[in-house]
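Researcher: Go.
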Amino acid sequence: MKIQTLGHACMALIDDQGTPVMITDPWLIGSTYWRSWWLQSYPTDSELAMLSQAKHVYITHEHMDHFHPPSIRKLGYGPTYLCPALPQEQIAQYLNGQGFQAKALEPLKWHSLGEAVQVLSIPLPNDDSVLLVDTPKAFIVNMNDSKPMGYQVKRIRQYIDNHVSGRKKVVLLSSYSPASPVNSFRKDAQIVSMKDKADYVHRVSELSDLLQADYYMPFASQVIFYRDDSVWANEYKVSVEDLKMHWKAQKTQLCHPYTTIDFDTWTVSHLPESDYRRDEDMIRKKVDQQADVERQAQFTDQDVADLRKKLAANNFWLPLLFRKGIGFVLDGRELTYKPWGKKIVPGIQNPSFSLMMPAQALKDVLYTGHFADLGITMFTLIILNGKTSPKMVYLFFLLISLHDYHHTWSFSNFWKWFRSTLRLNNWRIPALG
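Model: Structure:
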């Protein structure tokens, strides 16, 4: 058996016959976030054919770089699609509605996938999940780009100490580069960054030490930004050289992106950067087509009404945190939402902060309901006003995502989410039967 990483956050666990027992988060073709995010390297046709034979596909959460419908359609109807049992579960519901076979896994319970492979899903309050995978010779911790608390990670370490250490190798997969608005803040035309590259490497180093991982596989960060308004973010990506420079873990072997580890021989190989596969001409063409679409977009009065409705639904906290309101700088139109009156006025009227983005992107998130996706596009800029802290705007996206996932649509929804958060908070991981 071996493990291989492909695409972005796709982990393939492959049996001795070359068939994937399971894969995760298959973003394998095309782009995401309005043609902003593209893969550093795309799987070959033979790799795609191999992945399409997967028996199970686990999707950690709904973000488009993890739950990528075009890639799922490419894989087809053969696999069983799995996901976390989130309070307002939508992944399995959507896939079943499209004719796929999908189910949500009961949390904190081991599920057999055959080939002596067991998986355990741990939902998180932010509608993400951690996946633990037990194999005959390796114990895999797939953190993707989730951010569990330190005391929760210690629960995994406790399980490893009691049931894994001395018998199996521990393999950690976790993101290592920004996938959030931490570098999207601007004040007085200057970039305001919440973290630098070393911070990300130190985090995964500490995570590796805490779990006493034998191998760390760089993961969920294999992205290049191509839009004219997001290309700036490439400068803030954590590279392999940055990983090597700032790596501090004492015991853990630092692997490369796109690595394969053979669990029988423990040989480690990787795809050299010189062999990365991208069709630059195709990418540029698609990016230009997206730009043409966005140049024709108009933010209509109906869109303004939809924006007011979305923000007004969050008005129980917006006036307290952002009493001056929120500005929107769109193509050819500027607006300010005033929370105390639940109204939108023309122009930028001294808001607490402003969001600068293409009008089409805002129209799209108002249609899909995933407003917080704007924060990770890398083309949405956040203009700070006065003494507004980047941390407060970060909180804005966290809170509005609760509405995106329906948790604050009603008291019963909120109570269901809150109760689930309390119940799963301690991560009581059972021993394998």
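Model: The domain at 2-285 is CATH 3.60.15.10 (Metallo-beta-lactamase; Chain A).
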